[in-house]
Write a structure and sequence with these properties.
single chain, mainly alpha, Arc Repressor Mutant, subunit A, Tetracycline Repressor, domain 2, 2 domains, disordered N terminus
């Protein structure tokens, strides 16, 4: 038996329940379901149950399971890009700005494992949902501009090498955390150490910081 359709709930002012709150509940539930089971394994029924809505509402707001997945991917990318902007890296010394970005990226991955699994899932689908996303182009462009400005300030100050590609730098910052965490289970066996122990996590962050700062800094 299906879940009953929710009636419209009026606010104290007599207006219908906020549609944006409904969409957010569905998106939040979809993030969990898609992160756990991927696009193929996720079920709209499970998303409806978790979001306290119903399938009809989900299709009304998102059109299809594929479109819902696309908006989930956009949501998690906007989440990390928005959090990066809140670091106010333009107000920091260039070296500290890069170090702050490295620490932030590492900690964000630890605190938001769903981001990593959803990115993995979208890569399995050859990024077909992101190809048409203007949202991703906009937020990614702002991020690249921010990193470019940090590098330029570092060059002007005489502490960074010139000619560093900001996109390549971001890929490297992402990769050294992403690989470690997505391979934490196999890596713990292969390298015979608990990669997720507090001591090893701290050691990895220190290694990441040293690696990236050595990459960007001028030779003495």
């Amino acid at each position: 038996m299906g879940i009953a359709v929710e009636p419209e709930i009026a606010t104290p002012k007599g207006r219908p329940r906020d549609a944006e709150q409904t969409r957010k509940r569905i998106l939040d539930a979809a993030v969990v379901e898609f992160a756990r089971k991927g696009l193929g394994g996720a079920r709209v029924d499970a998303i409806a149950l978790r979001s306290k809505s119903n399938k009809r509402m989900i299709y009304h707001y998102f059109g299809s399971k594929e479109q819902l997945f696309k908006e989930v991917i956009e949501t998690v990318y906007v989440g990390i890009r928005t959090a990066e902007q809140k670091l106010h890296l333009d107000e920091l010394d260039p070296e500290e700005a890069i170090a702050t970005l490295v620490r932030f990226t590492w900690n964000y991955y630890l605190q938001h494992p769903e981001f990593l699994t959803l990115v993995n899932s979208e890569n399995l689908h050859r990024a077909k949902h992101l190809k048409s996303s203007e949202v991703i182009r906009a937020v990614s462009g702002k991020f690249v501009q921010m990193v470019t400005a940090i590098l330029e300030r570092g060059v002007e100050k005489g502490v960074f090498r010139s000619g560093i590609d900001p996109v390549q730098l971001n890929i490297t910052i992402a990769a050294i955390g992403y690989y470690y965490l997505t391979n934490r289970f196999t890596g713990s066996i292969v390298f015979e150490r608990d990669l997720m122990s507090p001591a090893n996590l701290d050691a990895r962050l220190a290694f990441n910081l040293d690696t990236i700062l050595r990459l960007v800094k001028r030779d003495p």
